[in-house]
């Protein structure tokens, strides 16, 4: 079992979502509900959310992302946050820029990465690791055409270095997800039908709902017994990543072969 640091139950939780494409836009749309649930349950501040994405809306994005043709050419981050602020009466923040190793990340307790390249994930891993970083948690979401995984971890940094049972991050458990050499080199989908052929509908929404449910348990009850999941939408299967003090040592002993089995089971 993992227990939330008591400090995050005494003030607003600063959340930075990196990427508001398929996974990001689906997850961000659920954060106001989590914010309201935390406040009703007695949390003093709920969530204070920032969204970072340097991309602009394209016609293809309007197929499986919550954007319309009238918004083509506008910033994804700005459009997404403006909608939420107007509807919910919030003051959340948009950061219309891409992440890189030279990015100065805003102060955040929780970073949620919904990036679509291993290179971007590797950049984030570098930014949240090390003595200067004070990030409590890093949740990473990723998916293929009909599968996905989410992992909530605690980066080894100035905040978590003394944690006895630190939750390992996604790159620590599965190093291949930060290998930029494995990124596809065929560019973004250039047509609506190509976008649908590359990815089944609703993969992003299913993955986002599981991520939101995990965060809801963490911030409402202050503890969780699993810190991720592998989701197979095609076969309606979910395999939780259970919090276990010795999971890191067991995975290290079994090596890459064990990791591949876990990923296929997703």
CATH superfamily: NAD(P)-binding Rossmann-like Domain
In which order are the strands of the major sheet placed?
4-3-2-5-6-7-9-10
Please describe the biggest sheet, giving its number of strands, its sense, and whether it closes into a barrel. Answer: 8 strands, mixed
Strand content: 15-25%
pLDDT under 50 segments (min length 5)? 189-193, 256-266
CATH topology: Rossmann fold
Roughly what percent helix?
25-40%
Which helices and strands, and how do they pair?
Layout: E1 2-3, E2 13-18, H1 22-28, H2 31-40, E3 47-52, H3 61-64, H4 76-88, E4 93-95, E5 110-113, H5 118-128, E6 137-143, E7 147-153, H6 170-173, H7 192-198, H8 203-221, E8 223-224, E9 226-232, E10 237-242, H9 247-254, H10 256-265
Parallel strand pairs: 2-3, 2-5, 3-4, 5-6
Antiparallel strand pairs: 1-8, 6-7, 7-9, 9-10
Task: Describe, in plain words, how this protein is organized in 3D.
By secondary structure, the chain is α/β, with parallel strands linked by helices. It has one domain: NAD(P)-binding Rossmann-like Domain (Rossmann fold, 3-Layer(aba) Sandwich), CATH 3.40.50.720. It is 35% helix and 19% strand. It contains ten helices and ten strands. An eight-stranded mixed sheet has the order 4-3-2-5-6-7-9-10, sandwiched between helices. Strand 9 and strand 10 form a beta hairpin. The two termini are 22 Å apart.
């Amino acid at each position: 079992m993992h227990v939330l640091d008591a400090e995050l139950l005494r003030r607003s939780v600063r959340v930075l979502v990196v990427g508001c494409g398929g996974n990001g836009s689906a997850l961000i749309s659920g954060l106001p509900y989590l914010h309201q649930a935390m406040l009703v349950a007695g949390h003093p501040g709920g969530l204070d959310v920032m969204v970072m994405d340097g991309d602009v809306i394209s016609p293809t994005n309007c197929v499986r992302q919550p954007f319309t043709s009238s918004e083509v050419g506008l910033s994804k981050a700005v459009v997404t946050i403006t909608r939420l602020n107007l509807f919910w009466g919030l003051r959340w923040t948009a950061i219309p820029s891409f992440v890189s190793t030279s990015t100065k990340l805003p102060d955040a307790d929780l970073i949620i990465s919904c990036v679509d390249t291993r290179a971007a994930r590797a950049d984030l891993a570098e930014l949240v690791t090390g003595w200067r970083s004070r990030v409590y948690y890093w949740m990473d979401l990723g998916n293929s055409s009909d599968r996905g995984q989410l992992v909530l971890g605690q980066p080894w940094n100035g905040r978590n270095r003394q944690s006895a049972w630190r939750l390992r991050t996604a790159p620590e458990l599965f190093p291949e997800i930060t290998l930029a050499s494995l990124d596809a080199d065929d560019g973004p989908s250039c047509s609506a039908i190509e976008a649908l052929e590359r990815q089944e509908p609703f993969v992003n929404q299913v993955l986002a709902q599981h991520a939101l449910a995990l965060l809801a348990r963490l911030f409402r009850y202050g503890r969780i017994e699993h810190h991720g999941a592998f989701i197979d939408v095609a076969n309606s299967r979910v395999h939780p990543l259970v919090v276990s003090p010795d999971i890191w040592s067991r995975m290290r002993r079994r090596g890459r072969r064990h990791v591949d089995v876990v990923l296929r089971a997703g």
